[in-house]
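Dear support,

Our group has been running a series of protein-ligand predictions, and this particular one with 2-acetamido-2-deoxy-beta-D-glucopyranose is the one our PI (initials K.S.) wants archived with full inputs and outputs. We had some confusion internally about which version of the output was final, so please treat the block below as the authoritative record. The input we submitted was:
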Amino acid sequence: MARSSSLAILVIALSAILQATAAQTTHVVGDELGWLVPPGGPIAYSTWAAMQTFTVGDVLVFNFTTGEQDVAMVTREAYETCNSTNPISLQTTGPANLTLDSIREYYFIGTIDQHCSLGQKLAINVSAPGPRPSPVPAPPRGPITYNVGDDLGWLVPPAGPLAYETWAFNKTFLLGDTLVFNFINGTQDVAVVTKEAYETCDTNNTITVLTTSPANITLTTTGEHFFTSTYARHCDLGQKLAINVTASTSTSNPPSSSTEPPSSGSNPVSEGPSAAPPPSLVSSAPSPLIGGFFITLFSLAMAFF
Ligand SMILES: *[C@@H]1O[C@H](CO)[C@@H](O)[C@H](O)[C@H]1NC(C)=O
Ligand SMILES: *[C@@H]1O[C@H](CO)[C@@H](O)[C@H](O)[C@H]1NC(C)=O
Ligand SMILES: *[C@@H]1O[C@H](CO)[C@@H](O)[C@H](O)[C@H]1NC(C)=O
Ligand SMILES: *[C@@H]1O[C@H](CO)[C@@H](O)[C@H](O)[C@H]1NC(C)=O
Ligand SMILES: *[C@@H]1O[C@H](CO)[C@@H](O)[C@H](O)[C@H]1NC(C)=O
Ligand SMILES: *[C@@H]1O[C@H](CO)[C@@H](O)[C@H](O)[C@H]1NC(C)=O
Ligand SMILES: *[C@@H]1O[C@H](CO)[C@@H](O)[C@H](O)[C@H]1NC(C)=O
Ligand SMILES: *[C@@H]1O[C@H](CO)[C@@H](O)[C@H](O)[C@H]1NC(C)=O
Ligand SMILES: *[C@@H]1O[C@H](CO)[C@@H](O)[C@H](O)[C@H]1NC(C)=O
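Confirmed final output from the archive:
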């Protein structure tokens, strides 16, 4: 009786460990875009990379047409200067797969013609295996005032629509936060629109239009909010912003991965004051897990003999 439930615990503990360490993700670089000279410049791959978590054992797939593209692993310096002399390795057949086998930064460039300087370059950070750093639980916080686009302000972004998408993507918008649109009076405006009008850039259909800068909008309802401009073609050229507003309570985080080990000790990682930046996650996360596992194993062994 005691023996079989101990065994059950052992099995559960083991499978938790295996799931946590052996989970291997395949990342297709750029997703549907594939690996090429990105239309929007280097921001395409840096935005893509920022949305991934790379863990030792994961596989990168560079999806490209053989003969039209290639991929070289290079040093940081060569990445920055787009120097394709003496790469660490070069793959000329697409799609090219690469297993990320160590904890470090990896740098990749295309070596054909000016591909690298035109934006075919990727830099990533690979972290230790273990429980995936779940999105850091948002600490309770007061209202934030966001300057839309930061220094860019609110205009037709030189880099195209990705600019405001990139600006918004890692931000949390809570009820009570304020958006400030900064622009030059008479050259821009802010149109609050429906999702449909946002997607089709139909600026005949606006909910509200704000014409003086700074235009402040306090977020008072949850859900998606869409902004663009009534000026001709501004929306088509990328002056558009979509955000998701969540309630200010802590219910905003969906239940994260269920592979939390049944550890007896408390886990300092998930509860810490999360204002601090997360570098410590990488180095400290696996050890309490492994330690807890061996302690469990040891006490099970004691129970048997
Ligand atoms: C997230 O946003 C901050 C500014 O709020 C920025 O400094 C940082 O680079 C962004 N992180 C990613 C991964 O894009
Ligand atoms: C690679 O690109 C081709 C053409 O776009 C696509 O059909 C294929 O599904 C892609 N492969 C992967 C692994 O994404
Ligand atoms: C490119 O790298 C090679 C060797 O890695 C070096 O000899 C060369 O000077 C570099 N070229 C430039 C322009 O930095
Ligand atoms: C590369 O990875 C893709 C996606 O996982 C897989 O379909 C393909 O067989 C792999 N190719 C090689 C040569 O390993
Ligand atoms: C990797 O992470 C380190 C430390 O957080 C950071 O300084 C560096 O810029 C990152 N590199 C890349 C390529 O994201
Ligand atoms: C917006 O209104 C103008 C003038 O009424 C019209 O010419 C144009 O087709 C309309 N645009 C859309 C997307 O409905
Ligand atoms: C825009 O116009 C408003 C109202 O006239 C004024 O208060 C504001 O300072 C102007 N903003 C800029 C950036 O010129
Ligand atoms: C809009 O927000 C800016 C920046 O927080 C602030 O300086 C300004 O007073 C606000 N304007 C109004 C009308 O609330
Ligand atoms: C808002 O969140 C929903 C559900 O997570 C998602 O489907 C949608 O694409 C998000 N919209 C924006 C503008 O980020």
